Amino acid sequence: METNPLKITELVLRDAHQSLLATRMRTEDMLPIAEKLDQVGYFSLEMWGGATFDTCIRFLNEDPWERARALKKKMPNTPFQMLLRGQNAVGYRHYADDIIERFVKQSVEVGINIFRIFDALNDFRNIETAVKTVKKCGETVEGCISYTVSPVHNVDLYLKMGKTLEDMGSDIICIKDMAGLLTPNVTKTLITELKKNIKLPIHLHTHATTGLVGMNMQCAIEAGGDMVDTAISCLSMGTSHYATECLVAALKDTPRDTGLDLNLLEEINNYFIEVKKNYAEFESDFKGVDINILKSQIPGGMISNMENQLREQNALDKLDEVLKEVPRVRKDMGYPPLVTPTSQIVGSQATLNVLTGERYKVITKETLQCVLGNYGKLPAPIAEELMNKVSKDGKVTDCRPADLLEPEWDTVCKELGDTYTSEEDRLTYALFPKVALKFFETRGKPQPKPEPTQVNNPVAASAPVASAPAPAGSAVYNVRVNGKDYTVEVSTGGAIGASSATTAPVAAPVASASSGSPLLAPLPGSIFSMKCREGDVVNEGDTVLVMESMKMESEVKAHQSGAIQSVLVKEGDGVQTGDELVIIG
Fold this sequence. Notes:
Oligomer: single chain
Shape: globular
Largest sheet: 8 strands, parallel, barrel
């Protein structure tokens, strides 16, 4: 019997927990099982890239470079694989070539062997620099086709993409089905045709979201696919991937037998069953099958993060509306495949459309740049309604977007000065400037435990401070509740002034001392940067500040012309929808 073992890439240390646990798994929960993972004999272990870099510094107070280095020490035998977003690296915008080159070289330095490189729009001009740099470093390029379904995408187009990736120097071709949109027939046809036309190994990455994953895997195997991605069973299925053990068991004693040890995999799974309990608060409510994802096309890693973001904004009840809005925004934006960063761009814009109650009332900076062609060429024309709001003349970028960027490295070094001089810190800052500076301040320090919340007493938010004389038997306090200031007069009994008797606190918004009109926050988020100061004169429509919400930046514009009478927020402040930001009079 002629054998052709199927090769397995294990995703437990990256995409599996990104899909199910909002990317929150800590290095300390990876290291104890690392030596066992190294014994399995995987083709590769994906453990870096995607959202892990961002999450490490934004939420976990961990250095992602140190994570890679620490894991490599424990796993010297298994090739490490990362997901690289081409010219976006692991960020959300295009970076200059000098940043991409340095990032790739440093990634090799900390142990990355296989670079799965993709562009969200399948504009392969955006992966040229990354591909060339990986090849120069002597490591493996896995060129990606970002799979999606739309009126402008078909098998012939994907075959052309595969040939282009081969000509560019890819060592492996990956079909990246980030939302689980493949069907068995398409899987078989696509892999069969790719194998006929291309001499490179074919690697299938697909999610379980729509419930078709098992049949798709079988069709990929029958069509001669060389590698597939799986996740250890306790972190598989749902928005994650097919279970590693299931595939190993199914192929045992067949020509495609993986040769992996089920007993060892069981031991690894038992370990992660316990680890998973540490992240219950981040676990996605989506645990089964949703065939509607074939309509919304939202990738697995995006759903759990979107749920978490909506939950933080007290808007989880809007999830169904957002899921319906996503395909409408995607159509308006020319049918981009939904994978980072376009999934975040489309998803965040859809969320804003729902939360603000008006389509494109607020347009994120990233949506604007994407529509203008600064992320690359979109697959189809832009909806006229949207284009009219972002471009007066309809002109878009038609060259490789990175050709418009000046080198960035010298500026990064100058901005950091002598404070942070390592290559890794400078790269971290280049990718996520504001988040990196906060991370550098807290790195290595134990993080304070969150204050216990008083669920049954939402009004008590901060210690009141007596602020003004009050009638006998009562007192007046200034208190801050959910980010808003209130003046509260509290009576110990009897009447307050001429009002009817009450013994409960009565809260009313602090009256504005000015006669101006407040500009209100159009969405929940944080203040990213201020573009005005008190005394500035602005015209209606001028940008007065930039907010960050769901990792996207949104310009907040003056609702009327006048002078800035007072600025009520500062950079870094968190705000809710409707909060007063500035007073314009």
